[in-house]
Amino acid sequence: MIPERLKWTPELVNRFWNGIAQTSLVQLNFAKQAGPSLLAAIKHLLSRQGQILDFGAGDGDLVRLLCEQGFQAAAYEPAEGRISALETSLSGIPGFLGVIGPQAKHLFDVVIMSEVIEHVLDEELDVTLNRLAEFTRPGGTLIITTPNNENLEMGMIYCPVSNQLFHRWQHVRSFNEETLPALLAQFGFEEIVTHRLGFDPAVLLPWDPDSMGPLGADGQPLPIPDYITKLHNNEKATIGSESNLMYVGRRIDS
To answer: Which long-range contacts (CB under 8 A, 24 or more apart) does 251-254 make?
Structure first.
């Protein structure tokens, strides 16, 4: 039989991620694997006096990292089965601002949407991006990461029980450095810069803004690589494998 393509629905998406949360596959979550590298790449955009929202917080790994490094962060997670787990796992952490829901009216200085936009279903995209804008204060910063020009077909897997094909990580859309800023401009965001980068710890963690930087054999600090200078100056940078996009935008005053 010719395989059929799975039609994702909100119910199936919730079941998928609630199911993943019960397995060791959570160890492959982006924030768990690449969170420290992401934080090193965006720390120059953050203030410890400001308030940060992780939009689509999953298991809370990025929120935990932010709080552990002295930032104030809240979590937004639309999957109902994950909300109580998030509240329990992050409760009591200094700097944790709580879990917020779709009806919250709070404005944040920085909103991070890391490896989320590629999962949003067509019928939910406008609502999701409008909500993203509503959470970002005018003049505030939006940071989005997503796979760079992903070939969705190569991410498919086949289920022999149902005879269906579906993306192994529930990705439903792919972006490049032109299409992502163009989409976000429709929802009130002005592009500052979009980088192409791989979140490899070896190329980002040594240059964390809070560290002294690596030392050479003579004990002196090594020169800062050009790609790090560009990153910190919000100039377009290409780093490592270029497997991901990192969009930085500003919420336009309305």
So the answer is: 251/133, 251/136, 251/137, 251/138, 251/139, 251/140, 251/141, 251/142, 251/188, 251/189, 251/190, 252/138, 252/188, 252/189, 252/190, 253/138, 253/139, 254/138, 254/188
